[in-house]
């Protein structure tokens, strides 16, 4: 069974949603990464037992098939914050007649899943997080600057572009994420285009380790060839992704207080946290700290994968099966 549609929500927004699996199954929500990543080709549904699960995914404000689209520079992001996304999730839950559900989140989606669970714990049967993030400033500064210690030549290019293009930015004297947020909102289309391409190249670089994203150099001493995500060739996807990501990251995910300071409200809700040891974009310490503050959570650290990979996906499927089999909260 599959259904899809556009749900009108607040602020003139319409949210794309889709539903898969058993109409009478245990409801499960899927929250994509990014921000701005969208649902893609809906491969996420294969992480669930569709004979026993009613899987619902949505594309967050401004991306995918949701309207209006953030690739349009005239579309304001003023009504695009984590609280707005939580309200949209609640609107979708009510519209689809769901009382409570298992909440899944991937990468940025794991931050949104946590934020939603903290805001609406009574609606959550269990949580599965994949490539765990909480979008603290420390995490953002690492992924946009600190990880340059591992990819110094790539980060030099990334920062140099911002220094050349963004008046008022100099490395060491400001946050590069804020510089890119200004650049992708420039009135100059050429500036927006170039900035989004530089951000996309940096994104591909720092997620490459542990995901099969680097090709072996053909000669000693040559730099590795980073495999490019084909989605970047879609201008609308790339511009919306970078605009939304820099918007959320430059505001620390619109999360005050940080999620790790509000974990008490999740007591009694089971969770499985899946993370790759080789994830240099988001070091495993975040998943570890979350696990330590969440009694009843299970931490799965995959020694071979990075920011996603085959064995992590297998753990993701197993986690949802475990919650289906009874290890979930009774609301």
Structure description:
With 331 residues, this protein is an alpha/beta fold. It has 2 domains: 205 residues, Alpha/Beta hydrolase fold, catalytic domain (Rossmann fold); 114 residues, no CATH class. The protein contains 9 helices and 10 strands. The strands form 2 sheets. An 8-stranded mixed sheet has the order 1-2-4-3-5-6-9-10, with helices on both faces. Strands 7-8 form a two-stranded antiparallel sheet. α2 links the parallel β5 and β6. It is globular and about 55 Å long. About 3% of the residues have low confidence.
What distinguishing features does this structure have?
single chain; 331 residues; alpha/beta; Rossmann fold; 2 domains; 8-stranded mixed beta sheet; two-stranded antiparallel ribbon; 34% helix; hydrolase
Q: In a few lines, what is going on in this structure?
A:
Its EC number is 3.4.11.5. With 331 residues, the chain is of the alpha/beta class.
Radius of gyration: 19 Å
Write down the CATH topology of the largest domain: Rossmann fold
Assign the structural class, choosing from mainly alpha, mainly beta, alpha/beta, alpha+beta, or little secondary structure.
alpha/beta
Helical residues, percent:
25-40%
Shape: globular
């Amino acid at each position: 069974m599959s259904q899809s549609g556009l749900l009108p929500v607040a602020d003139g927004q319409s949210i794309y949603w889709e539903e898969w699996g058993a109409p009478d199954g245990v409801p499960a929500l899927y929250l994509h990464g990014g921000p701005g990543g969208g649902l893609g080709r809906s491969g996420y549904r294969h992480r669930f037992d569709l004979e026993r699960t009613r899987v619902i995914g949505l594309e967050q404000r401004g991306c995918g098939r949701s309207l209006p689209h953030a690739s349009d520079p005239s579309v304001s992001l003023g009504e695009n914050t984590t609280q707005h996304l939580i309200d949209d999730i609640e609107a979708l839950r009510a519209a689809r007649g769901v009382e409570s559900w298992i909440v899944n989140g991937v990468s940025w989606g794991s931050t949104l899943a946590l934020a939603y669970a903290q805001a609406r714990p009574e609606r959550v049967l269990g949580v599965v997080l994949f490539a765990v993030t909480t979008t603290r400033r420390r995490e953002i500064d690492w992924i946009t600057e600190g990880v340059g210690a591992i990819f110094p030549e790539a980060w030099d290019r990334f920062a140099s572009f911002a220094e050349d293009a963004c008046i008022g930015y100099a490395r060491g004297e400001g946050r590069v994420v804020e510089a890119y947020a200004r650049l992708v909102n420039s009135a100059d289309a050429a500036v927006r285009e170039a900035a989004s391409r530089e951000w996309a190249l940096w994104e591909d670089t720092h997620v490459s380790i542990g995901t099969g994203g680097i090709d072996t150099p053909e000669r000693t001493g040559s730099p590795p060839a980073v495999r490019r995500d084909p989605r970047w060739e879609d201008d609308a996807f790339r511009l919306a992704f970078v605009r939304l990501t820099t918007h959320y990251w430059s505001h620390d995910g619109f999360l005050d207080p940080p999620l790790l300071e509000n974990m008490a409200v999740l007591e009694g809700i089971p969770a499985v946290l899946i993370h790759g040891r080789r994830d240099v974009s988001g070091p495993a310490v975040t998943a570890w700290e979350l696990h330590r503050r969440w009694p009843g959570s299970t931490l799965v650290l995959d020694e071979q994968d990075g920011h996603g990979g085959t064995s992590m996906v297998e753990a993701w499927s197993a986690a949802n099966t475990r919650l289906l089999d009874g290890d979930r909260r009774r609301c």
